[in-house]
Amino acid sequence: MDTPSRRRAPDQTRAEIIDKALEVAAELGATGFTLDAVAARTRVSKGALLHHFPSKTALLEGMIDHLGAMHVESVLAEAARDPEPYGRNARAYLRVTVNEPVTLQDVSIGRVVLAAFALDPSLVLRWKAWMDRIKIDDPNDPVGADDALMLRLIADGLWMSDLFGLHQVSDEQRKALLSLLTPGHTITANEP
Amino acid sequence: MDTPSRRRAPDQTRAEIIDKALEVAAELGATGFTLDAVAARTRVSKGALLHHFPSKTALLEGMIDHLGAMHVESVLAEAARDPEPYGRNARAYLRVTVNEPVTLQDVSIGRVVLAAFALDPSLVLRWKAWMDRIKIDDPNDPVGADDALMLRLIADGLWMSDLFGLHQVSDEQRKALLSLLTPGHTITANEP
DNA sequence: TGACAGTTACCGTCCGGCCGGTATGTAGCG
DNA sequence: CGCTACATACCGGCCGGACGGTAACTGTCA
C-alpha cells in the first residue's frame, strides 16, 4: 500500500521539481521564472526547493540536464533509423529539429534556457557536454565535417528562428531544408 | 571652438550614451548591464540617462537600432559588391556573418542582446524590423527562397555558435561554408 | 524490541541588497 | 518665463538565499 508519508524519495522529488520548473518556465516565461514560483507550483516550500537544488543555477543545471538528455536521446534514436551509417548523426540532428513540433511551451522554455545561457555562460558548457554526445567528427567518416557542421548550424539557426519568430518558416520550407539530405542536392543560391 | 557648456545637443548625448552602453555590455556582461553602470560610464547622472531613455527597455531599443542599422549597412554594402543580382542579399548576409571577425566585445554584446530578447520578446520585433530591410523574397528573383532561407539559417546558427562557443569553427570551416556560394556546389552529407 | 543518536527531508520566515524608476530641484537657453 | 538638459536624493519591490527549526527515517547496541 502507498504510505501516506510526508517524506518522499529524494530523486523522485528532484524529478518532480524539475518537471514543475519546466512548467513554470513554459507558463511564466523568463521573468516569471523565480524560485518562489517553482516552489509554489511544486507544492513544496522554498526551503525544500533549496535543499534539493542549493541555488537557482543548480536548478537550471538540473533542467538543462533533463532537456539535454531528452534531445540526445531523440537524435540518436532518429539516427539509428538511418540505414547509411556515415554522417547519420548530423542528418538526424537536423531532421529532429525540423520535424519536431515546436509548441508554445517549447518556445517559452527555450527562451528561459537561452536567457540563462546569456546570464550565466557557464551553463552553456553543460549543454555543450550533452550535445557532444552526438558525435559528428568520426575520423573514419568520409562525410565531410564541413557538411556535418553546416547541417547543425542550419538546425541551430532554425531553432533560434522558431524561438523568436525571426522567420516564418512554412511546412514546405521545412521540407525543403530536408531535401538537403537527398543525394546529389545542388545549391541554387547562385544560379538564377 | 568647443563650448565648455554643460548643456549638450540631445541627439549627441543620446549617441554617446548608446556608445557607452555598448561598452558596458561588452565589459560587464548581461548581469552587470545596469542603468547605474551605464550612467557611471557615460559620466552622466542616472537622472539624465532616464531623461533621454525613459526606461531600460528604451535604452535597449536604442542599442538594437544602432546595431541593426550597422548590420543592415554592412550586408547591403557587401551585397552591392556582388555582380550577380539575384539572391545577392542572402549571400551577403552569410558572407558578412562568416567573415566579420567576432571579437570578445561582440560576443559579450551579443549575449546581452540575446538576454534582452529572451526577457523582453517585444525587442525581437524591433530587430526583425531591421533585418526585414534585407529583402530576400523578391518574387522576381529566380533564386529559390528556400535556399536563401537556408543561408540565413546557417548565418544565424553560426552567430549563436560563436556567441556561446558551441562549435569550434576553424577558419577552414568558415571558408568551406562560403563554398556553398560557388556555382554548382553539391552537398555530400549523404554520399560517403 | 526499544532507546538513543545521527542523518536527511522539509518547513516558514526573514533579511539584505540590488536595481529600475520617481520626485524634486536647478542652470542654461531662447 | 518657459522649456529642456541635467543633478541629487530617495523609494520600494522583488528575489535569491540564509537560518533555525521539526519531523521522519536509519542505524546501532543492549
From TrEMBL, chains A, B:
Pfam families in UniProt: TetR_C_28 (PF17937), TetR_N (PF00440)
PANTHER family: HTH-TYPE TRANSCRIPTIONAL REGULATOR BETI, HTH-TYPE TRANSCRIPTIONAL REGULATOR RUTR
Tagged with keyword Transcription: yes
Name assigned to this protein: AcrR family transcriptional regulator
HTH tetR-type domain mapped to chain residues: 11-71
PROSITE patterns hit by this protein: HTH_TETR_2
Signal peptide: none
Annotated source species: Brevundimonas aurantiaca
DNA-binding region extent: 34-53
MF terms in GO: DNA-binding transcription factor activity; transcription cis-regulatory region binding
